Structures are given as structure tokens and as C-alpha cells.
Amino acid sequence: MSKSTQKIVSDVMTYILLTLGAVIMLAPFWWMVTTAFKLPANQYTKTLLPNPATLNNFKELLGAGINFPLLFFNSFLISTLTVAGQLLTCAMAAFAFAVVRFRGRGLLFTILLITLMIPPQVTLIPNFIIFQWLRLVGTTVPLWITAFLGGAFGTFLLRQYFLTIPRDLVDAARVDGASLIDIFWRIYVPLGRPALAALAIFTFQGAWNDLLHPLVYMPAVPNTTLTVGLAFFQQQLTQGGKFTVLMAGGLVSILPLILVFFIAQKQFIEGIALSGVRR
Is there a single domain that holds both residue 169 and residue 91? Predict the structure, then answer.
């Protein structure tokens, strides 16, 4: 068998495996989408397309005892503030570790990476005691304020990308009299948009899908996040045989994630591809 034939066979097998993996991953998602548009009487059918299709499940979702617009707004507000806090603080920390030379920089960065091994559940109780003392439990503040304190993953991701930016740009800017703040805002932030977009997507996804922290800090169903509201009403909807309504809620809940990914898809892929390359 010639090398060209081997390459063709290898490519075909690769595409077959990738297609099989895509089908396996997309099958539950497609089942959710089709069920959301089915009639309750047809929710157990195995048809690939809803026949007939209906929007009554989405209307019933609004009247199922869930203040859906409020839950959606709370989740969007918390996710947006979390993204803003992570982008700002992680970018500044990454700039310091990548550009600014100071004694103990490597040691501090190593200590920062070690914190990645600490599960967030470990710090949940101490944080809850602090926020309870500050009388912030029951509000959205505990869910986004910690994002403005930085993060190890975001700092590492942005630092790796900042290391790919030529150091000559910094030297030229310093010769022109630019300060570190000017270099950060005018050079590294614009050039680091792919990595910033990747971090924004990761952060938005984590904050939007978070169930544990909203359940601890905002357990009241009328004024909580979308994930907690859907979790509370899951048993009620499934016991009533309304999987179609539940799938409609699940579909609406993931639409912002899909939208954010497709908007920043190009920057996301570029940021992930280059963040692991070090000059």
C-alpha cells in the first residue's frame, strides 16, 4: 500500500470517528430540541422532527410558577459581572507575570497555580460565613464579587498568550515614554483579544451553568438564578408528565451560551491555540 493510499485511509477513518463522536454528542441535544417543540402526547415518540410542532410548551413555561424573565435576568447579570471581573483582574495579573520583572515572580506564579488544586467546595463554608456577616446572603453580590479578586486559571491562560507578544513592542513603547499602564491598555489588551474572548466564554459558561453557589447564596425560588429555578421545578414538571415544558426551559437556558460562543468563535479558537505557545 502506497503512502498516498495510507494517508487517504487514515483520513477516512479519522473523519468516520469524528463524525461518530459528533453524532453521539449531538444526539441528546437534538432530542432536547425536538421534545421542546412536541405536543405532550408525542413526547415519547422517536421521530427526529416534531410533527406537529408547537410553541405551547414555551408559553406554559412562563405560567408554570417560575418567574422566568427574572431568573433569566439574574443569571445574565451575574454572568456578565463575573466575566467583567475576571477579564479585568486576570488580565492585569497576567500582564504583571508576563511583562513586569520583579523578584519572586516565578515563585508567586507557582503558588498561584497550586491554588488550582483546591476544590471550590473547600472555600464555600468560609466564604458563606463572611458574606453572612456582611449581610449579603440572599443577594447576587456573593456570586460575582469574588470574580474581581482574580483567578488562577484566567491568569495562567492570559499570561501564556501575553508571552507570545513580542517584547520589542514593550521596549519601543518604553523608549517613547509610555508607562506600564499605557503599555497594558494600548498594546496588550488589544493584541490579547483572542485570549480574552476565550476566557470570557469559559467564565460565562461557568457562571451561567453554576448551580451550587446560587443554591447556597440565593435559595429563594422567586428571586434566584435560572439553573436553580429549573432544578426546583424539575420534579414538579416531570411528575406531571411535562417533559416537553422542561425541555423548553432547558433549550432557552442554553441559548445565551450558544450565542456567545458563535459570536466569539474565531477569537476563542485562536486564543486557545496560541495560549499554549511560549516564545
Answer: yes
Average model confidence (pLDDT) across the chain: 84
What's the full length of the chain, in residues?
279
Q: Is the dihedral of CA 13, 18, 20, 21 positive or negative?
A: positive
Give the mean model confidence (pLDDT) for residues 34-52. 81
**Chain-centroid distance, C-alpha 82:** 10
User: Are residues 268 and 174 both part of a single domain?
Assistant: yes
Cell of 64: 408554570
For cell 432557552, the residue is: 252
pTM as predicted: 0.83
State the Cα–Cα distance between residues 167 and 174, nearest whole angstrom: 11
- Domain containing 173: what range? 59-275
pLDDT of residue 38: 85
148 with 163, same domain? Answer: yes
Query: Cβ neighbours of residue 69 under 8 Å, at least 6 residues apart?
Result: none
List, as one string, the DSSP characters of 68-92: HHHHHHHHHHHHHHHHHHHHHHHHH
Domain shared by 120 and 209, yes or no: yes
CA dist., res. 187 & res. 169, Å (int) = 8
Q: What is the mean pLDDT of residues 139-152?
A: 91
Q: Return the higher-pLDDT residue of 3 and 167.
A: 167
Whether residues 45 and 65 fall in one domain? no
Q: Which of 36, 54, 72 is the last residue of a domain?
A: 54
Same domain for 37 and 78 = no
Spatial separation of the C-alpha atoms in residues 260 and 249, rounded to whole Å: 18
